[in-house]
Amino acid sequence: MRTNPLFLLAIAVFSMWTTAVAAQDTSKQVRLLGIYAQGKALLRWAPTDYPSWQRGTKQGYRLERYTLQSNGGSLSNAQVLASRVVLSARLLPLSASIFEQMSDTSNAAGVAGAALYEDSVQVTVNTGDP
């Protein structure tokens, strides 16, 4: 069965590696934004609170894809579940050493690495005339 990428909707499902109790706690969530452009599904996600952010950076995220439509038609629930593809079983942030290497050419990488791996982060803002 050949699928047309314009009618193929990919959904990413993120679940943090937590216990069953924590997984049922609706106050700990990850928000997801996704668009389909130029033949690619582009995703951006962020935890909604600090404890979820900490857990996600330490335990990682599970990334799964499901097909909801194929050949212009919706799939049944059973077909959607059968279409599951695990893209990453445990997606983690880059290591501190990689962030350090990247910070040589990117201030944003330095800030991101520091936010993940340092006890405190101090950012200097250039107030000079651009």
> How many H/I helices?
5
Structural class: alpha+beta
| Unreliable residue stretches | 1-24
Order of helices and strands: EHEEHEEEHEHH
Give the N-to-C terminal Cα separation. 55 Å
Strand order of the largest sheet: 1-4-7
Number of DSSP-assigned strands: 7
**Secondary structure: helix percent:** 25-40%
Radius of gyration using CA atoms only: 19 Å
Mind summarizing the main beta sheet? 3 strands, antiparallel
Estimate the mean pLDDT confidence: 78
| Assembly of the depicted chains | single chain
Shape: elongated
Share of residues in strands: 25-35%
Question: What would you say this structure looks like, in words?
Answer:
This protein is 30% helix and 32% strand. The chain is of the alpha+beta class and 130 residues long. The strands form 3 sheets. A 3-stranded antiparallel β-sheet has the order 1-4-7. Helix 4 packs antiparallel against helix 5.
Helix/strand layout:
Elements: E1 10-16, H1 20-24, E2 30-37, E3 40-47, H2 50-59, E4 61-67, E5 69-70, E6 73-74, H3 77-82, E7 85-91, H4 96-102, H5 107-117
Antiparallel strand pairs: 1-4, 2-3, 4-7, 5-6
Helix pairs in contact: 4-5
Question: Summarize this, please?
Answer:
The chain is built from five helices and seven strands.
Provide tags for this entry.
alpha+beta; three-stranded antiparallel β-sheet; 7 strands; single chain; two-stranded antiparallel sheet; disordered N terminus; 130 residues
